[in-house]
Amino acid sequence: MSRPITCYQSSFQAECATKEWRTSRCGESQHSERNCHLAGNVPPSSTQPLDSHPVHAFEGVARPVIFEHPDEALPYWGKGSSMLLANSKHYFWLTASHVLKNTSVRSLRIFPSDDSRISLPFDEQYTIKAEWSEDDDYRDIFALRINIAEFEISGDAPLTAQDTEQGLLPAEELAVGVELWVIGYPAERTEIDYERGHIRNSRVVIRAVYQGPSSADHCHIARVSSSIRLKSFDGLSGSPVFFLQPAVLAGQKVQFPRLVGMAIRGTASSNLVHFISGKIIGRLIALASDGDT
User: pTM of the full predicted structure?
Assistant: First the structure.
């Protein structure tokens, strides 16, 4: 039986931080001229495979996880992936809880786009309540609500967020064998130039094939089958997992990007990625938006 989900809310205030070091992120998508853009209800602009032509608006949903360090010689560091989400009420940032292990949430610095020099402001944090065993993989999820009012004042670049009301698909509805896409920032593709003060976070788009549900509640498995070769999947935790859902729009065949989950673990040796179902993500965001704690 699937376990019910409730969320825990706690107050959290995070001021914007100005980025002093330069950063670059390979393959970042272009954003609309509005400060906030919802992805998930617009098909990709190209029919080419994502791992060979990674220029799609919804890819900007994936963001690298960066922390501010008190050492002035290395003000920023980080490892891990995350995503930006939104519904009709709020915008959120979400990652795997273990990405934040042994770190301070207040030192977290998430930048809304490649061109941004100012990090996102947050005002609330959410986790799934610890009502079950600590071994439950589906509880490995952490969300922060973006203070959108402050962002509109201080933000220096637009953000792209996946629409959880139209752009989300429960992984339970997937057929075994369908093609999935994992979008994240592996640790081996992050480079830091201490002398120049330059951080380079390279995003990858990894093709995978859905294998079915795992033994853990609300979790699923995908087998990586991509032209991109990684020695390790370290850093991919928190990555959004997408399914391009076929549809017909204005008489033409298109594919809509649907968020089906979030990667929480995996190994390059097995080529397997385990991910939490989009159903849990949607439920957490809905509860957070409704204030149901």
Answer: 0.82
